[in-house]
Amino acid sequence: MSTGPALRKVGSHTSIHDAALNHALNLNDDLQDAIAENQMDEAMDISAQIIDIWENRIIEHANSEEESLYKEMSAHSEELAKRVIELTREHDILRVLLAQIKEVLQKEGKVTDEAVRKFDTLIIVDEVHNDYEMEALELFHK
Ligand SMILES: [Fe+2]
Ligand SMILES: [Fe+2]
């Protein structure tokens, strides 16, 4: 996972966000298609792939930020220190949603409407988060 310089630049950081989010978005579409065709085993396989992206790319990315970039931003100004608290809370919301999805899949043994709704919610929360994070990164460079 990229750390350091790539996270400090708006361009490369945005590319990291967009690549992972587009991948998740495409898989959410595939998931809805599989469910519409009543391919429930296929839907479980796709869900596992979606979870893998969230855990191993997007949450890993968030962990890297909290360990490096966010510390530097917090030290930069009071305004950014406040934003880092908000951004970290948004990471936590992603972590909570992901845990809820895994729990419902495990409990029900199939992809439920609730899981589908939360896969979509992850995308929306992350889009809002990424915009706010890039605004913060621009303040960091001012
Ligand atoms: Fe983030
Ligand atoms: Fe980020």
UniProtKB/TrEMBL annotation:
<dbReference type="InterPro" id="IPR012312">
    <property type="entry name" value="Hemerythrin-like"/>
</dbReference>
<dbReference type="Pfam" id="PF01814">
    <property type="entry name" value="Hemerythrin"/>
</dbReference>
<feature type="domain" description="Hemerythrin-like">
    <location>
        <begin position="27"/>
        <end position="123"/>
    </location>
</feature>
<protein>
    <submittedName>
        <fullName>Hemerythrin domain-containing protein</fullName>
    </submittedName>
</protein>
